[in-house]
Amino acid sequence: MNASLLAGEALAAVVQVVALALGAPVLLGLMRKVRAHFEGRVGQPVVQPLRDLRKLFRKERMRPDQATWIFPAAPVVLVATVAVAGAISPLVTTRPALGGSADLFALVYLLLIGSTVLALAGMDSGTAFGGMGASRAVTIGALAEPALLVTILALSFGAHSSNLPAIVQATVLHPEILATPQRLFSLGALVVVVVAESGRLPVDNPATHLELTMIHEAMILEYAGPDLALVTVGEAMRLALLLGILVNVVAPWGVGAADSLPAIALGVVALAVKVTAAGVALAVFEVFTAKMRLFRLPELLAGAFMLGVLAVVSGLVVR
Amino acid sequence: MTGSFYASALEIAVSVVLLAAMVTLWRRSVRAIVRSLAVQGFGLATVAAVLGFHLGDPGLLVVAALVLGAKAVVIPYLLTRLVRVDPGSRETQPLVNVPASLVAAGALTFLAFAATRSVTAVVPSIAGRLIPVGLASMLVGFFAMFTRRKAVSQIVGLLLVDNGVALVAFLATSGVPLLVELGASLDVVLAVVVLQVLAVQLRTRLGAFDLDQLTELHD
């Protein structure tokens, strides 16, 4: 492999992480703006989450007295795992540096490390709500996991590989596989899993102020100042990353080889447009959706699992 | 119609049939269950239409129109009228809960594929490879019939079985003669009318569409 291509791939990986870190809070602001628009409010400026982060980073560190080292470590681990996942995923280019290690299974468990440390930190703070939120979050994660794994299996049939860049590359080369039932079923399952994993409606209400209905917010209730800023960035990046992976699996256009600066720039623009569209669609959907009862969630995620199974079945038999 | 377009159109239409069968197990509101039955009828009509275009058989297109009228419009309309008597009707307590039903439905789908392996070997066409989906829809219909409590959802289960049979017929024989399909469709519409009358009777006697309350014989 020649040196310039290698440099391009390394640059693309860095660009992806920076785009995620800066773009994710703006995406969050945009989604809030869409919601405000539909509710007849003006809403915050789109860049408000970035300003909030700046404010939080300048605040004093406050941690619970009883908390162990897990509590301060969790936000750092969360952001680090999401950043690594963002660096190796095919967001801007189909060939980011170290893309060979972006196996979908590895990626899923990389993201799961972040969720797990956050759940541990929720219990570590020693409050009732932290433990409750952690227990709920882990339950949802455990229910979403089988659906996600089955869906990955179905996605990997088309590309004969569970490597995410390879799957996106195969879709770029053979766009007709997008119209197969296998891909349509996996898309349905992926959407449900992404909504569940990123804690959006109808699974979890990210804007709630009522502790008893909280899932993710209850888990991070004890965080303040710079720690809270890191958690917020990590969660926003995870949402943006999941949406980015989703849109690139569904519509892999504008994702090219990272051989030149214009190609990388094009990739960033294409990613921004697609993720914005997906985020706005999700926000509009959320406006018209009520939060589901916690005990009804297994039904929703079992539905996603069923879609995954159907995808596998049609992938095994039809092609 | 070009080969690959035919193949993916047929695959997607058949998948819609299977998906609609699964959705009847997924949703609790009886109204939504009837709606997904209508979607399945639409998918079935599309299968017939795609086969008709591919084979250049105008008779099959008439069959498709017939299926569309009977299974996507008339029958769902009759069932909707039944639901309107009791609009908030929900499957609150199915005998097997929803997540377990869905897992069972996935297992039944695999069973259908395993059981029809010898059949699909005989019909070496794209349509032949999709025959198991028809069987899967039948099995899901049976499952819905014996795990759901409301009269309407049990009728829907019966119709899922019927749609599955029709799908297998379309795929295995590359189209059913018009006369046969006419007879079958009329039969089903008639059966739904009779079941509707029975369900209304049930409601006036028991005040509910819940078949589990039928525990003793009356004269």
Q: How would you characterize this protein structure?
A:
The complex is a heterodimer of chains A (about 325) and B (about 220). Chain A is mostly helical. Helices cover about 70% and strands about 0% of the residues of chain A. Chain A has eleven helices and no strands. Chain A has helices spanning about 5-40, 50-60, 70-90, 105-125, 130-160, 165-175, 180-195, 215-220, 225-250, 260-285, 295-319. Chain A is globular. The mean pLDDT of chain A is about 85. Chain B is mainly α and about 220 residues long. Chain B has one domain (about 5-215). Helix content of chain B is about 80%, strand content about 0%. Chain B contains nine helices and no strands. Chain B has helices spanning about 5-25, 30-55, 60-85, 100-115, 115-120, 125-130, 130-145, 150-175, 180-205. The longest helix of chain B is centred in the C-terminal third of the chain and has 29 residues, at about 180-205. The radius of gyration of chain B is 18 Å and the shape is globular. The model of chain B has no long low-confidence stretch (mean pLDDT about 80). The interface of A and B includes residues 179, 298, 302 and 309 of A.
Summarize the model shown.
The complex is a heterodimer of chains A (319) and B (219). Helices cover 71% and strands 0% of the residues of chain A.
Furnish the topology, listing elements before pairings.
The complex is a heterodimer of chains A (319) and B (219).
Chain A: H1 3-38, H2 48-58, H3 70-88, H4 104-124, H5 128-159, H6 164-173, H7 181-197, H8 216-219, H9 225-250, H10 261-287, H11 297-318
Helix pairs in contact in A: 1-3, 1-9, 1-10, 2-9, 3-4, 3-9, 4-5, 5-6, 5-7, 5-11, 7-9, 7-11, 9-10
Chain B: H1 3-26, H2 30-55, H3 58-84, H4 98-115, H5 117-122, H6 126-129, H7 131-147, H8 151-173, H9 178-206
Helix pairs in contact in B: 1-2, 1-7, 1-8, 2-3, 2-8, 3-9, 4-7, 7-8, 8-9
